[in-house]
What does this fold into?
Amino acid sequence: MDNVKFWQWVVFAASLAVAFASGISAAVIAAADGDGRSWFRRGRKKYSQPTVEELTEEKFMMAEANIKMLEQKELLEAATEELKDKQAQLEAHKVLLMRQNDKMADINNRLFEVNEELSREKGKSEKLLLNILPPQVAEELKTLGQSRPVLFENVTVLFTDIVGFTSKSAMISPSVLIGELNVIFTAFDNIIERNHCERIKTIGDAYLAISGINKDQSDHVANILQSALEIIEYLEERNKTSEHYWEVRAGVHTGSIVGGIVGVKKYIYDIFGDTVNTTSRLEQHSEPMRINVSSEVYALTKERFDFVVRNATELKGKGVQKMYFLEGIKGADEKGEAAI
It folds into this structure.
């Protein structure tokens, strides 16, 4: 009984399937166009297999496309190689530039060192010029390359000479003698400079200095007198402890002189005129460790310095002249110091 029911259900299901399929086929046929062909048949005809000509044309087009792609590929590869070459050149230029920069840095360092050395040498040269020339003369020589003689209307000259130098030098070795003169004249230079004066030159054991050739030195007479007093004081103190005993005579005169550079290879600044000659005569008529001054010096400074009147004396080429010994500064304190 159960088997009969099973087969009944199978027949019923098959009937339903046939009916469903028939309905779909009817719908498809109804959707067909006027000539009775279905969309399926129409689609097959529309997308039918291409002709030989069409296939040939399509192959040519594909070949052309491939050729163009190959050409583009070659161009791209060439551009890539060129770019690599440019990059290599750029790297080479970069390395070369770095090397050049290093060389420039070395050259700049060397130039800096050379400039520093030149500056030091220039400083030494300028210092040397100032040691042998008055400041304004050295400046004129640096600026113009030459210096013309100048007339100085009001200056004061100091001339000193070591007493008995010739006889003493015969008893001292040359090295010791030069050493002694170097120490003494260096001390004189310091005194002269401290009092705004200028050392002109030394001639053996003689020492020549002047005041008034620089600007703003209206007090040139007092400056020279102060220097002369300090020179005497220095030697007195040195003689107390030194193995060698030295004394000087000094002469001072004021007036006009001509100053200028003598020579073209070895510069020597010298002063000329009657004032220089008179100062030398005054020194010759002085006494050991005394300062002999002219009546002109006395007249200008008698209110500030103490003097001792001397007998009138015949000076070569000048006739009879009044002379005075400089004793010191008026109002000096117990230590011998005074402000002038």
About this structure: The chain has three domains: 2-39, 49-120, 147-329. The longest strand covers residues 248-262.
